[in-house]
Design brief:
The protein has 486 residues and is α/β, with parallel strands linked by helices. Helices cover 30% and strands 17% of the residues. The chain has 15 helices and 15 strands. Strands 3-2-1-4-5-6-8-7 form an eight-stranded mixed beta sheet. The chain starts with a helix and ends with a strand. The relative contact order is 0.11. Bound molecules: calcium ion (3 copies).
Length: 486
């Protein structure tokens, strides 16, 4: 006979282990909508290489203000070659991570959405129907991230179908929805989604920081990160000899760009081209940075601040900046307008605006390079990221003057690589308006003392950053949030 107390203890043990390990977190559910621009096609390669990180429930072609059927259109079936190439590398990918979805599964959830014109949301399309089906499925009520790499029109059509046919379900559907838009690339968020669904206060991130890795990366990327986007790095790590999926990845071709963006004076043939939409899915990769918990925590996909209701936009580094009331897009977004009208002036301001993305750019590119190897190499010959586990809690409540011990015991590398530790304060993400000094910040065990001037309720965010010595060097994290309660 098992004692009730034993069961309770066992339960507490299991739940505490769960709280300490990022790997046990269930995969984010995601739906992608994309307008098939050349840089979406680059993003699609990276996306498929991370397909094991999520439950992908829809890959849907949509239109945008830039692309629609008959206007700079990549074709209704532009995703097919990418899925075919994924099918070819899949047998090797699963040697590295068993949980890549099968090519047949990905094909079964890939659909054409609303593509006839910019902002078209009258037609019920296979893409809009897939979104409806996923959102109305009550067997899974975990959050679902809907990403717009183009317009929001197919999403808007799906929501309108739900409003028309199942108005009683709107609230429960809204509860699980999370939006991540790369700008508002048509007007349907303003004209339909906000007026009809605004009352449910759906968390909505609208990103402009993406410029850091879009067509003008060469002007934005800091000097210590720019080599990861240069042709010599791209050639050996991404473009050549990495199998059929990476061979579809398009580099910069030289002499300006299809989309009319003029390259900077130093951009060369074979350089990185553009992946403006990638932050939408990069944001949902579980790196240990806990970015899904709140958009202002920040992670590989950037950091966002709450502007109004549950709308999160890019933090603009100007005091008294007034965010526009309507669309956040090419005409209004700060970064786009900085690049168009102000660059090359005030580059300190530019650097701080794009830092939420550029600060991780080396780790991000190295990670992409490792997965290039996963397409062609056996497990033993490729690198895999460290798994960061901490002995201390991830959420700590502390008082002024408390000594906090930080301990990364339990962290390991699946390849047995040597690990390098770095503990640092993510000052922009925490609400303490000061700097904490960390003792032994480059050891497995570190500590800090809560400064005497932290106000009650404020937070200190500490990142445990762990890099291996494999090739390419890979990095993972764990974030600790200390809340002051006196
Ligand atoms: Ca796009
Ligand atoms: Ca490794
Ligand atoms: Ca701070």
């Amino acid at each position: 006979m098992i004692h009730k107390q034993f069961l309770i203890a066992l339960f507490l043990l299991i739940t505490s282990i769960k709280a300490f390990t990022q790997n046990e977190i269930i995969k984010p559910r995601i739906i992608v909508t994309s307008d098939g621009e050349i840089d979406d096609e680059c993003s699609m390669v990276r996306f498929l290489l991370y397909a094991n990180e999520w439950d992908i429930e829809g890959i849907i072609t949509s239109s945008s203000q830039y692309h629609w059927q008959g206007h700079k259109w990549a074709g209704d079936d532009w995703i097919d070659p990418y899925l075919e190439a994924y099918e070819k590398v899949y047998p090797n990918l699963i040697k590295h991570k068993k949980d890549y979805p099968t090519p047949d599964y990905l094909k079964s959830i890939t659909f054409l959405g609303n593509v006839k014109a910019e902002g078209e949301m009258d037609l019920i399309t296979p893409g809009s129907q897939q979104i409806v089906k996923v959102l109305l499925d009550e067997s899974d009520n975990n959050p679902i991230w809907v990403q717009a790499w183009g317009g929001t029109n197919t999403l808007a059509r799906a929501l309108k179908t739900i409003e028309e046919n199942h108005p009683d379900k709107m609230e429960s559907v809204a509860k699980k929805l999370r939006f991540f838009f790369i700008w508002e690339q048509d007007n349907t968020y303003q004209s339909y989604i906000k007026p009809h669904w605004g009352k449910y206060n759906i968390q909505t991130i609208i990103c402009d920081q993406f410029w850091a890795i879009a067509y003008q990366w060469d002007k934005i990327m800091p000097q210590d990160k720019i080599d990861y986007f240069r042709n010599h790095w791209m050639k050996s790590n991404i473009l050549e000899n990495h199998g059929p999926l990476y061979s579809l990845y398009e580099a910069y071709k030289g002499g300006g760009d299809k989309e009319g963006f003029i390259a900077g004076p130093i951009k060369m043939k074979g350089d990185f081209r553009s992946e403006g939409d990638s932050p939408a899915f990069i944001y949902t990769i579980n790196t240990g940075l806990r970015s899904l918990e709140s958009p202002d925590y920040g992670g590989w996909g950037g950091r966002y601040v709450n502007i109004r209701e549950n709308t999160w936009l890019d933090p603009v580094p100007e005091t008294n900046y007034n965010y526009p009331e309507g669309r956040w897009y090419t005409k209004t977004a700060w970064g786009r307008n900085y690049m168009r009208n102000v660059y090359p002036e005030n580059q300190d301001l530019m650097n701080s605006y794009f830092k939420p993305i550029t600060r991780w750019a080396d780790a991000l590119q190295n990670d992409f390079a490792a997965r290039a190897d996963w397409c062609i190499k056996p497990y033993e010959e490729a690198n895999h990221p460290p798994v960061v586990k901490l002995k201390n809690k991830l959420n700590i409540t502390a008082k002024l003057g408390d000594k906090i011990s930080l301990n990364a015991k339990g962290t390991f590398d699946p390849d047995g690589d040597k690990l390098k530790y770095r503990w640092w304060q993510y000052e922009e993400a925490d609400t303490y308006n000061g700097v904490v000094s960390i003792n032994n910040a480059s050891s497995k065990k570190a500590s800090l003392v809560i400064p005497s001037d932290v106000k009650n309720g404020k937070t200190i965010h500490i990142i445990c950053e762990v890099s291996d010595n494999g090739s390419p060097q890979l990095t993972r994290y764990q974030r600790i949030i200390i809340t002051i309660s006196n």
